[in-house]
Write a structure and sequence with these properties.
The chain has 328 residues and is of the alpha/beta class. The protein is 17% helix and 42% strand.
Length: 328
């Protein structure tokens, strides 16, 4: 093997190994590490250039060691910036007034009409009012399992557990739309965690009365949503290396679902009696749309779609993902 091909080959092998091990659950790779540790690739390239003409055994060992060490940091690195002595706290937060100014203890910090929570567990609430006809839920942040499968008499309720990073919840109103934001922040820090029970979790409940717009933007995340009890107007799912499992209910006049992923697994369930159309731009992704008819323009439709009054429109784009839509 030519010595100048050794390091690029080792980098490709390491990248492929990370994808495989993460997909099969042997490692929990934090994809945001690439953003924070990208200079590692400059170091790899620099060392390879410096010793490009040196074909001695020690130079080869040095170059391979830098590659292995760099990928070790990418896989296991988790650099804490906000706290060196994390605590365990429990508290409840109820957002009853959009104009309140929160004065929290050291375990929290105010953030507009919300609160930022450090490690521990939290309960976030937003009261329901009869004028809440339209509501928008924005979810952002990776390394979290988001679950939504039950209703609440409040407009919004979330019970969270955080071991790495902190949640921020804010709420407001834009014209006639109630806007709720749940965000995982500062999920950084160095840790080797063999305890699979230590993971960030957010169990969300929504009021079934409003029409909902739900926007999810995540990194390496698991999303498990049963939305069959809710009126969904728009659903947007964006993820890098995520797992999306969504069950839709009967559509409104128009229910729109937009999916954009990198390397993800996406499973969407639609009611058997619902009219649904699917458009894909999936690159190297695989797709399985059982019970749908393929049209000449590449769309997939349920039988009798054109004559239906209420319809679901699904648009999927992805790099190397697995898309499945089934009728239940």
């Amino acid at each position: 093997m030519r010595n100048d091909k050794l390091v690029p080959g080792a980098i490709l092998v390491c990248i492929g190994a990370i994808f495989l091990l993460n997909n099969f659950g042997y490692i929990d790779f934090h994809w945001t590490n690439v953003i924070h540790l990208w200079p590692v690739f400059l170091i790899m390239g620099g060392v390879n250039l410096v010793f490009a003409g040196n074909r001695s055994a020690w130079a080869t060992i040095l170059k391979l060691s830098v590659v292995i060490l760099g990928f070790g940091l990418l896989v296991f690195g988790h650099f804490e910036r906000y706290s060196f002595w994390p605590g365990r706290y429990n508290f409840q937060y109820n957002d009853k007034d959009d104009d309140d100014d929160d004065d929290d203890s050291d375990t929290t910090s105010s953030a507009g009409n919300g609160v930022v929570k450090l490690e521990g567990s939290s309960i976030f609430n937003k009261d329901y009012t009869p004028d809440a006809k339209l509501a928008r839920l924005n979810i952002k942040g990776g390394a979290t399992t988001y679950t939504l499968n039950d209703t609440t008499s409040q407009l919004f309720k979330a019970e969270t557990k955080e071991f790495y990073g902190k949640y921020e919840f804010t709420s407001g109103k834009e014209d006639s739309v109630y806007v709720l934001n749940l965000k995982m922040k500062n999920n950084k820090g160095w840790h080797f965690d063999a305890d699979n029970n230590k993971s960030n979790d957010a169990n969300i409940k929504l009021n079934p009365n409003p029409e909902w717009e739900i926007n999810v933007e995540t990194g390496a995340t698991k999303v498990d949503f049963d939305l069959s009890k809710f009126k969904i107007k728009n659903l947007t799912l964006k993820g890098g290396a995520a797992s999306f499992d969504v069950k839709l209910g009967n559509p409104l006049a128009s229910t729109n679902v937009e999916v954009s992923t990198g390397v993800s697994e996406v499973r969407i369930g639609v009611p058997t009696g619902a009219a649904c159309s699917i458009r894909t731009n999936s690159g190297l992704s695989s797709s399985d749309f059982a019970g749908f008819d393929k049209k000449d323009d590449g769309r997939y439709e349920t039988p009798g779609f054109d004559a239906a009054k209420n319809k679901i429109y699904i648009h999927m784009t992805g790099g190397v993902s697995d898309f499945k839509v089934n009728r239940y």
